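Q: Got a minute? One more chain.
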Amino acid sequence: MAAKLVLAGLVVAGVVTYTLGLGPFATRLEAVTESQGKALIGGPFSLVDQTGKRVTEADFAGRATLVYFGYTFCPDVCPTGLATMLAAYDKLTPQEQAKIVPLFITVDPERDDVAAMASYVALFHPALVGLTGTVEETDAAAAAWRVYHRKAESGAASDYLVDHSSFTYLMNGENEYVTHFGHGTTPEEMAEGLRAALAAGAAG
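A: Always. Here it is, folded:
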């Protein structure tokens, strides 16, 4: 499955490259930033969780979020990415866990309705929040996080794969980009990165 991140079109006058120094454990994205130093990754969203509740970034204000984009029919990359993210979450103390919310946002809302998301996230962890919506809503979220995704041509209306980038993004309590973790990151490395970010004030 293809895994590439599209950043084209973001360069504006006065941009600089931003990399948060959280140590060697995080596979970093050289994020294009505005002149004031904010990474142009992430943004407002309005989606529906696995209980059918409409949620926005305001529902997670004050807590860091771990954001992973994928889809429930994903055969291998998504289950591995989510398992790693949640294994890292489980390595945190209860106090640390209270400051972080793991999110799974679909890139395939045509199949991933509320019921499908509810069944899927229940397989992984009770803390995992699954988010879906209309195609326009999930596409807007993917665009905000610079997530590449494309439905693979299969000739079948309902039996298809979706090529997508595979990163776990850490956002702070104001929904601002902190860092990201690549697909090969271990749970231990990710947990170390989360602790470092929390110690630096990523939540609260």
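A: The chain has a mean pLDDT of 84.
Q: Perfect, thanks.
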